[in-house]
Design brief:
alpha+beta, Cytidine Deaminase, domain 2, 2 domains, 10 helices, elongated
């Protein structure tokens, strides 16, 4: 009688290494991208599934304030996380820019007023976490499709100088029919100030002289946005 051979046990993963079936890339393919945690998703960008990538992603999320903080971190801030690299920062920035371009392309295909949520998402991705005030304009054609979104003026932490004649000049150059104005509040409070309302009226009056309509003025902050049109301020 031959002696019984004990069944083979699956080889365990080396210390610090996840079993193949539990690695983020495998879980994504087997269970779908929605099954991954924030750290697992981020690890695919920061470390490509390498050993320690999930822990590196957890450190980045903790230090930089979650996914939004990681996405909008400067290279210096990103590399302040132990183990983070310039290559990881480049990949994260590429994902952020891809998201912006997808939204921009969507807004160019049809009337922007049919997709107000996309307009806000696009502006929040573009301006919401900038550390200084930025004034941007969405220039639209006669069908209210996006021609261009341009940052026209930059300012300080609390204010920006905006020149109506420059907005009018650019509107004429692009031959637009209407615009959506936007600027950010780095303070995190998106409520319009008295100065914001005065500026909006000045821009409305200046653009009306060249038959360009102001459809809205949207103020964005890191976690919120406010529409002048919805507040009845236009």
């Amino acid at each position: 009688m031959r002696p019984l051979t004990p069944p083979k046990r699956p080889a365990s993963a080396p210390a610090g290494r996840l079993p193949t079936s539990e690695r983020p890339c495998a879980r994504l393919h087997n269970q779908g991208v929605q099954a991954l945690s924030d750290a697992e998703l981020l690890s695919l960008l920061m470390g490509g599934g390498a050993v320690g990538a999930v822990e590196l992603a957890r450190r980045a999320l903790h230090r930089l304030g979650g996914l939004a903080g990681v996405l909008h971190a400067s290279r210096h801030q990103f590399e302040s996380v132990a183990g983070a690299s310039a290559g990881g920062h480049a990949r994260v920035q590429a994902v952020l820019e891809i998201a912006r371009r997808v939204l921009r392309q969507d807004l160019a295909r049809g009337p922007v007023l049919n997709a107000p949520a996309r307009v806000r998402d696009f502006l929040r991705l573009s301006l919401g976490r900038v550390g200084h005030e930025v004034f941007a304009v969405l220039f639209l054609d006669a069908q209210q499709r996006l021609i261009a979104c341009e940052e026209l003026f930059r300012g300080t932490l609390t204010q920006t100088s905006v020149y109506p004649r420059e907005v009018v000049r650019r509107a004429l150059t692009l031959n637009c029919a209407s615009v959506i104005l936007s600027h950010n509040h780095p303070s995190g409070v998106a409520e319009p100030s008295r100065a914001d309302q005065i500026l909006t009226r000045e821009l409305q009056n200046a653009l009306k002289l060249v038959d360009v309509q102001v459809l809205d003025h949207i103020i964005v902050a890191a976690g919120a946005s406010v529409s002048f049109a919805e507040l009845g301020l236009l």
